[in-house]
Amino acid sequence: MDAKSTAFHLYKQTLIRKNTNPIGQIYSYEQKDKIGQGAYGSVYKAIHKVSKQVRAVKVINKLNIKYKERLLSEITIMELLDHPSILRLYETFEDAEYLYMVLEICQGGDVFDKVLEKGCLPVEDAFKIYIQYMRAVNYYQGFKIVHRDLKPENFLFQKKNDLSSLTLIDFGIAKRCIDKLKTKSGTAYYVAPEVLDGLYDHKCDVWSAGVVLYVILCGYPPFYGENEKEILTEIKTGTLQFDGDEWQGISQEIKDFIRSQVCSAEKRLLPKDLLSHKIITQYNQKFVQDNKLLSMLTLNQWVKYHPIRRLALFYLATQLDSSELVNQKNCFFFINTSQTGLITQQELSTYLKVNKQDVQKLWPYIDCNSNGYLDYFEFVAMTLTQQEFLKQLQFMFDFLSQQDKVISQKSIKSIFDQNANFNNKWDSISDTKNHLAIVNQHEQQINVKNILEKDMDFNAFKAIMQ
Pfam families, from UniProt (predicted)? Predict the structure, then answer.
């Protein structure tokens, strides 16, 4: 097989670097750039010295971590998840004292800020927000993950006054859920009653999502009290009411839609059913399409690219802010009619108006993690324009060369060697066959010579990217 048509297997997690060199070599930030305080540490605004991208760095004192396993679980979950409405983890750094999480920066405030500012939001705005976070819930529940702390404060906006830039954050108490969970967790106003009983599953997030929609529409929670004990008692024994003046102009259909979530777990709808509800269809954003973004010509061209070019673009696709990918995000959701956050071969062939067999032939080259779906980062990699990626050549080169002067077989091998770390990592977190790659051992052994025949300096790399 021609080296230039080599397909390779690569997990998205492999592209998230775990650095042991000083973070100051790569990022510049100062104490005055502090933008927040989390449960584990302080968050700073930082600038990547090469790409000039603005990012958030969470600085965690390892000596003061009370729940180390919880932090490691959060990192593992964020490494895996890949969705336009879920916060991105770009890379980590570690030294003797601190762990640094480099994250997507969100500078538009949170949903709670919006509610405080306006009292309550118009129905159309409320559903614009709801659809985005319910898509995220539907996606991560495909991996049998439960967030356990959905609330307005955990829905941030990439940009100020842009409701379509919603991002879900804080997987600090997220958990894999095969059987019932028992640990009581969450935030008082939004926690489901079965969580308080100490026996629950993924449906607890649907309750919280419904409560958030209630709060957005009227400005206050459905269950409240003078203190936490009273609030929790009300959640367990109270009845969902729509008595306030704010509900006078809101349809019975919307109230029933909220009731289908804020109800007993047995009657509660699943995210996929909520997203296909006629109310959602009514308020769903009609995505404007850039027809030049993806075509069979694009796919056929992608297959012919040098493997190093494809690898570089896969990497860059995991490293861009969602705010830089508005066209890609809109097109991705337009194609992904099932709203799972994963494009199927059938969905892609329907969008391209070609036979499924035509897509199947190209699939090994675009589905690089071999999970049977087109993930968001894979889609983004194929649809980045030259204008978008040529300004990041040095950034991509630094990753592929592992900060050396040339891209070598050794540097490429070190990247693919990271794949082995993820083959069994999710045994303890997920066995979801539909979403996780199942790859035979021999398929994981990459012949680096098929990807790179000889050392490639920056000029040679630049040439294959043109």
Answer: Pkinase
CA atoms lying within 13 Å on the CB side of residue 33: 15
Instruction: Answer yes or no: is 58 a known binding residue.
Output: yes
Within 13 A of 295's CA, how many CA atoms are on the CB side?
6
Q: What is the pLDDT of residue 443?
A: 46
Q: Each residue of 240-288: pLDDT tens digit?
A: 999 999 999 999 999 999 999 999 999 999 999 999 999 999 988 765 5
173: domain CATH number is 1.10.510.10
Please state, in angstroms and rounded to a whole number, the distance separating the CA atoms of residues 268 and 441.
41
Determine contact, residues 383/414, Cβ cutoff 8 Å.
Answer: no
Catalogue the E-assigned strands of 21-160: 27-28, 34-37, 41-48, 54-61, 89-94, 98-103, 145-146, 155-157
Q: Residue with structure tokens 């100062």?
A: 30
Name the DSSP class of 187.
-
Q: Over the stretch 63-96, which tens digit does the pLDDT of each residue have?
A: 877 778 888 999 999 999 999 999 999 999 999 9
Q: Is 80 in the same domain as 130?
A: no
Report pTM. Answer: 0.93
Distance between CA 220 and CA 317 in Å, rounded? 39
What's residue 420's pLDDT?
63
**Whether the Cβ atoms of residue 158 and residue 321 lie closer than 8 Å to each other:** yes
Q: Is the pLDDT score of 103 beyond 60?
A: yes
For 209, the domain range is 111-283
CA–CA dist 171, 424 (Å, integer): 21
Lowest mean pLDDT among 213-222, 232-241, 432-441: 432-441
> What total of structural domains would you count in the chain?
3
384 and 307 share a domain?
yes
**Are residues 227 and 186 part of one domain?**
yes
pLDDT, residue 290, reads: 63
**For residues 18 and 399, what is the distance between their CA atoms, to the nearest angstrom?**
12
CA separation, residue 137 to residues 11, 41, 132, 184, 443 (Å): 22, 26, 9, 20, 32
| CA 221 to chain CA centroid, nearest Å | 27
